[in-house]
Amino acid sequence: MKQLSNLNLGFSELLSFNKKTSLITTSRRHSYVKLLIILCSTYSGSIYATTISLEQYLGGYSTELAGKPALTFKFTSINSDDFCNIITTEEHMFSSNNLLENINLSEKNFYLDCEVDNQFYMLSNHFRTYAQVLIKQPDTNFPMSMHIEAKLVTINGEYLNVISGDISLRK
Q1: How far, in Å, CA of 97 to CA of 61, rounded?
Q2: CB 91: neighbour CB atoms within 10 A?
Q3: What SS3 state is found at 64?
Q4: Which range is least confidently modeled, 24-28, 66-70, 106-110?
Q5: Helix (H, G, I), strand (E, B) or coil at 147
């Protein structure tokens, strides 16, 4: 039996493949169609997502989040107008054991958003999104840095993958 290895296989191709195979019954054919629909809907965001690689710290400032003192950090790709903002309450940052996480807007004291190619990407509780920031404390050889990873979405459901190496918080 052939294996389905390419998600770009169309529904008509799948159905004609199944009709040619005498071992596959109608109910099994429907199961394959359901599986393909699930696979396409599960992976459609990550297959066609834009990716931004953050490389440079632009600066930060004090602000408020949910009525509490907060810090905002701004990052960009080199030679690009694209940028991402991290905002977290001071209390959350200092009590987080150097790991900030927000999955589907589950954390109200930490937020990450980006503007890429004039599109605004954000965390959402309607789409599968997350943001994770690993804060690396300074030592004698290296300044404080952040490692950022996220999957954000536009209001239209377009995904953005955010990645970075360790970005120094020195300007």
Answers
A1: 21
A2: 12
A3: strand
A4: 24-28
A5: strand
> Is the Cα dihedral 48, 52, 53, 54 positive or negative?
negative
pTM of the model: 0.71
CB atoms within 10 A of CB 46: 12
| Contact in structure between 132 and 99 (CB atoms under 8 Å) | yes
Which among 72, 104, 107 is positioned nearest to 86, based on CA atoms? 72
Sheet strand arrangement including 50-54: 50-54, 159-168, 145-153, 130-136, 99-103
Distances in whole angstroms, Cα of residue 127 to Cα of each of 22, 60, 93, 108, 137: 39, 28, 25, 17, 32
> In the chain, pLDDT over 70 holds for what percent of residues?
72
| φ/ψ (deg, to 5) at 51 | -125, 135
Read off the pLDDT band of 130 (50, 70, 90): very high
112: left (phi over 0), alpha (psi -120 to 50) or beta: beta
Task: Give dist(CA 160, CA 115) in Å, integer.
Answer: 10
- Provide the token pair at 139: 């030592």
